[in-house]
């Protein structure tokens, strides 16, 4: 099933939402407006011909000079239909439009990945300060070698 057939099914399930197909080389990609994200995800899960019942991953991308600056990306899996889908939502960086609803009511597993990208409340802001996470230094025991001698199995 390609992106156009998924979009045709969604247009009947969620009237009034404007979708667009995205370019992809591996599996179908669609762009969803932020205002209809929850309704669209519910339709993707509950429509019998789609049945995307597993949320695999939630991630985000920052396209700094472009506006809308962020894209939140949901990777979905339909086990009964053997389909994968990438759902992208464009999110602006300003205070008013930088808000995205949570999909945790549809896929309970969405809570942790959404918190990782900065969505810690049901309507959290995706902003540059919350998008970037500081790196933690490795613990001291792991950062030092235990022995200065090389073994025969080490790759030089």
Summarize the structure in words.
Strand 4 (70-78) and strand 5 (83-91) form a beta hairpin. The protein is of the alpha+beta class and 156 residues long. Mean pLDDT is 81; it is low at 121-125. It has helices at residues 3-13, 37-46, 111-116, 128-131, 140-143, and strands spanning 20-22, 28-31, 54-62, 70-78, 83-91, 99-101, 123-125. 22% of the residues lie in helices and 26% in strands.
Strand order of the largest sheet: 1-2-5-4-3
Bin the strand percentage.
Answer: 25-35%
Q: Which outline best applies?
A: globular
Number of helices: 5
- Write down the Rg: 20 Å
Mean pLDDT: 81
What's the SSE blueprint?
Elements lengths: L2 H11 L6 E3 L5 E4 L5 H10 L7 E9 L7 E9 L4 E9 L7 E3 L9 H6 L6 E3 L2 H4 L8 H4 L13
Parallel strand pairs: 2-5
Antiparallel strand pairs: 1-2, 3-4, 4-5, 6-7
Keywords:
five-stranded mixed beta sheet, two-stranded antiparallel ribbon
In short:
The chain is an alpha+beta fold.
């Amino acid at each position: 099933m390609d992106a156009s057939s998924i979009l045709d099914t969604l247009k009947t399930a969620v009237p009034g939402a404007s979708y667009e197909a995205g370019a992809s080389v591996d599996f179908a990609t669609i762009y969803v407006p932020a205002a209809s994200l929850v309704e669209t995800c519910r339709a993707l899960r509950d429509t019998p011909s789609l049945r995307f019942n597993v949320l695999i991953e939630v991630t985000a991308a920052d396209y700094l000079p472009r506006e809308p600056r962020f894209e939140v990306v949901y990777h979905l899996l339909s086990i009964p239909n053997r389909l994968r889908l990438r759902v992208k939502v464009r999110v602006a960086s300003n205070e008013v439009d930088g808000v995205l609803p949570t999909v945790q009511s549809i896929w309970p597993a969405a809570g942790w990945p959404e918190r990782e990208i900065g969505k810690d409340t049901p309507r959290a802001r995706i902003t540059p300060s919350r998008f970037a996470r500081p790196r933690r230094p490795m613990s001291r025991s792991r950062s030092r070698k235990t022995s200065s001698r090389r073994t025969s199995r080490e790759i030089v």
